Amino acid sequence: VEKVIKTSPDTFEETTITATLSKDLMSQYLLSVKNGKKVTPEEAGGIADNILAQQKYTKTNPVIYRAININLTTKNDNETVLKYKNEVYKFLRAESEKITEDPRQMIMDYQKNKDEKILKKIDITINSTKNIINGLIKTEVPAELVQLHLSVLNAFSDMLSSVEAIRASAYDPILIYAGLNEYDNKFKRIKV
Taking the model in full, what pTM does it have? Predict the structure, then answer.
């Protein structure tokens, strides 16, 4: 899902994913009614199902990190591994303690109340997740832990992409599908 920045939830812009979805639905509908043919409710539902099944409406696009993106060391001694473990634990704990509410519930509350303060709470989750990602990138990673480290880093990247889509759905409603779907899948991956 592309990231869209909007200034107001009351403004409809042509660049949103929701606008793209509307255009796709309308063009498929118009193709179906070409030459005076009537579209049944079942056919209209089929058009909607086909369009909503496209990945651009159901998937987020997280950054994928590789070994080249992290701070590697060839050291594998106990001291290096312990230092790594302590550093990661320290920033993971500090940042995760800032995340006190579920983004899924917050966006539902926002949709119900249209209170901008609720969106600010989602920003706390986004910023903490970014801080975790930055910490994981900067931490010196022992060679034997590279694959595990990249798995954790990419899980947080997935989560960030999902939470950003949830946040953006306040201004681009169709993003809620990709954001919630991906968040549920990625959050389960991080909890394991």
Answer: 0.72
